[in-house]
Amino acid sequence: MTNQNVVVSDGKSSMKVAVAMAMSNTSLFSQAVPKPPTWSAGRFVRRKAVKKLESQGGPHKINAWVDSMRASSPAKSPPSSPEHDSWMVTHPSAMDMFDEIARSSKGKKIVMFLDYDGTLSPIVQDPDRAFMSEDMRAAVKAVARYFPTAIVSGRGKDKVHDFVKLKELYYAGSHGMDIEGPSNGNDDKSIVCQPASEFLPIINQVYNKLIQKTKFIEGAKVESNKFCLSVHFRCVDEKRWPELAEQVKQVLNDYPKLKMNYGRKVLEIKPTIKWDKGKALEFLLEALGFANSKDVLPIYIGDDRTDEDAFKVLRKRKQGFGILVSKLPKETSAAYTLQDPSEVKRFLQRLVEWKQVSQCGYYRS
Ligand SMILES: [Mg+2]
C-alpha cells in the first residue's frame, strides 16, 4: 500500500500525509481505561473458534460459514438474565458513568466518533431504509457544534452522508477506507483518505458477479459500499444460507486479495489491507492535530464487530472511551454500554447539555 491516496488540505495548500503515520502507535497518553473483562461463556468461546475459521480454507468451509453466519446473528435473550446482569457490572451504562466521562474530559478536547447502523439508526429489514430520526439528527448536529464529530460506517461514504445529511461532520465510509470532511464550505481543514482505491476495479467486478450469483436467492441483497461490499441475508430463509454461502464462496475463490468477515445478518467483503475503523480513528485524530496530544478524549460509539477495532485502539492508547451499543452480553473491548439508538441519542443530548452548562460555569459533577 502506498500513501498516494491520502491527502490533507489546509484550505490554502494540500500536502500528502503517509497512511503509515496514521498507523503509527504514539501512545503517550496516561488516562486509565478499564481493562476488558475475561469472559468465558460458551457463546464467546464459539465466537473465537468461528473467528479462527474465517481465515481458513478447506472443504469444510461452507458449514463453517453457515455456523459463523448464525453465531454473528444471535437470537435475542431476555435483558434481565443473570448473564446480562453480570455483564452490566463489567460494562456499565455510559449514562450511569456520565459524570466519570465528564470528569475525564477536564482540560481535554472531546472528539466524537459514531457508527451509523444500529447506533444512530435502528437495524431494519431493508438496508436502504435505515433512516435516522430528526431528533437523532438534531442531537448529532448539536454535538458537532461543540466537538469534532465523525461518522465511521461500513456503508459507502456518500450513502451514509445521504442518511445523516450534516455537512459539518467528518465521514469515514467503507469501514474507514474512504474518509472525507467536513464539506460545509468554511472548514479550514478538509481531509481525504482512500487507502484502498487500487482495489476499486476488482470490488466492482465482484459486486457484479455477486449480483448475478445471488439473484435467485430470495431476500439476498448485495450492497456496494464503494471500497467494500455487503451481502445481506437478514431476509433470506435460514434453509438457504448454505446456498448463499456457496455462491459467495465461489466468487471469492477467484479474488485472494479480498477477505470476508461476518456482521449481523451480513457478510462483509473487503480488501486485504491493514485498514479498519481503528485505523480510521487514528488517522482522524492525527489529521485533527491530536496524534501526540494528551489533551484529547476520543469517544467512540458503535454496535458491531467492526467497531471493536476502534475500541481496541482506544485501549491501546489508554485514552478515551469505547461505548458498545447492545442489549445483549457480548465479548467487547468497549468500556461502557448503551442499550440502543434511543439511549445513544439521550447520551448525546446529555453531553451537549453538560457542555452548555459547564461553559456557563454552573455544571457540578
Ligand atoms: Mg453498526
Structure characterization notes:
The protein has 365 residues and is α/β, with parallel strands linked by helices. The chain folds into two domains: 42-79 and 197-267, no CATH class; 91-195 and 274-360, 3-Layer(aba) Sandwich (Rossmann fold). It has helices at residues 19-23, 42-54, 61-71, 82-90, 98-104, 134-146, 157-164, 200-214, 241-252, 277-287, 308-317, 341-360; strands spanning 6-9, 14-16, 109-114, 149-152, 170-173, 178-181, 191-193, 221-224, 229-232, 258-263, 266-271, 296-302, 321-325, 336-338. The strands form two sheets. Strands 2-1-7-6-5-4-3-12-13-14 form a ten-stranded mixed beta sheet, sandwiched between helices. Helix 6 links the parallel strand 3 and strand 4. The longest helix is centred in the C-terminal third of the chain and has 20 residues, at 341-360. Residues 1-56 have low confidence and may be disordered. Bound molecules: magnesium ion. Residues 115, 117-119, 302-304 line the site of magnesium ion (MG).
